[in-house]
Amino acid sequence: MDLSVVIPVYNEEESLPELTEWIAKACTGAGLSYEIIIIDDGSSDRSWQVTSGLSLRNKNIRGISFRRNYGKAAALHTGFSLAQGNVVITMDSDLQDSPDEIPELVRMIKEEGYDLVSGWKKKRYDPFIKRFTSRFYNFTARVFSGIKLHDFNCGLKAYRSEVVKSIEVYGEMHRYIPILAKEAGFRKIGEKVVEHRPRKYGTTKYGLDRFVKGYLDLLTIAFITRFGKSPMHLFGSLGTLMFIAGFLMAGFLGVRKLWYVSNNLRAPLVTDSPWFYISLTVMIIGTLLFLTGFLGELINRNSPVRNDYLIRERINA
Ligand code: UDP
Ligand code: MG
What we know:
Blueprint lengths: L2 E7 L6 H14 L4 E7 L6 H11 L3 E6 L5 H11 L4 E4 L11 H9 L5 E5 L7 H18 L11 E4 H6 L10 H7 L5 E5 L15 H19 L3 H32 L11 H28 L9 E5 L2
Parallel strand pairs: 1-2, 1-4, 2-3, 5-7
Antiparallel strand pairs: 3-8, 4-6, 5-6
Helix pairs in contact: 5-8, 9-10
The site of magnesium ion has 5 residues, from loops.
């Protein structure tokens, strides 16, 4: 199969018929064999009923519905594990992304050899606050990751199938998939300017907390990609440094005391010096950092069950 289109859906009943029809038209028009994988992320509207209705008419539609809302990353992860196409495209279900971009994205993966092609919503139909913060995130993500993308979190992306089978998108990490891909060793990452459209039906599924969460996730990724496999490298070295600094200060106080005593001078109490308290604090913090490193290493040994999602129902999956 040429192509899998993975679509996370959370309360988008109005958009689905139009979206799936348009994708089908774009794919058949380009002569691509395809499947549409709909992941209903615990919708409380009729999204799932609509999906199963559509799947009766178009046998290329498959789907999974979660028992509750797990978030876009969970939906994508599950969609990725089901995908059978050589190329996998993700697309939002709110008709903000245009299925007409599909053939060109597929061509870039197949013929130009890209591992991942991210859409770039150069002209965006989103509120000002979102466009503004988005610039800031994209700038930081660029500097940190060294990937030259303008729009890390574009919902419309195309992947070589191998890429989505190798990365683990959990939590809210869907915002930084290109970084995960690069970390997994897929270095040919490109972008394509795509058409962005105003949301046609329904409302956005994210509130203002997206901005805080997005930034925290970036920090997590920064940490995980550098030290995730060996937290001891960060915490151990910081802890050791601090401990040594504290130890030197305490040592200095001790030596000074001995010097006074051996010269028969009246020695000040060690506890009179502020350095005594500073050295104590620094040594304690150093030890704590060291222990944190150890705990991190211990946790790493137990592969966590981050990706256990309860599935309610399936269609052709
Ligand atoms: N979505 C999802 N689970 C969620 C939130 C969103 O599957 O918990 C889907 C949603 O249905 C849409 C896509 O993720 O297809 C992007 O969401 P939205 O359009 O609300 O985000 P925005 O365009 O405002 O960034
Ligand atoms: Mg949207």
